[in-house]
Amino acid sequence: MPELKWGVHKTTEADFPPEAIAKHGLKYCQRAGVLAFKGGGKNSTPRIHTPKPFRDLLIEIALSANDQSEVRDQ
Question: What is the distance between the alpha carbons of residues 74 and 65, in angstroms, rounded to a whole number?
Fold first, then answer.
């Protein structure tokens, strides 16, 4: 199994849209989270989609579990 990256991403001003920081302040934005300011309006794609590296990991785990079940069936 691949090693997972664990930890907390420390958000900075660069993670948020400048207009959100101007309107709410950095501390509010950090409490709300980066995804609260992604997409918006009718485009919620960034909040819905699974990140590609995590998707690939889930597929790899599923495929390895499938391989194990084939070995057990024999």
Answer: 15
Cα distance between residue 48 and residue 37, in whole Å:
13
Rounded CA-CA distance 29/2 in Å is: 33
Report pTM. 0.46
Compute CA distances 19 → 35, 38, 45, 71, 72, whole Å: 15, 12, 20, 56, 57
* CA end-to-end distance (rounded Å), the chain: 23
- Which of helix, strand or coil describes residue 8? coil
Cα–Cα distance between 66 and 58 in angstroms, integer? 12
| Residue range 1-47, pLDDT digits in tens | 667 777 777 888 888 989 999 999 999 999 888 878 776 666 666 66
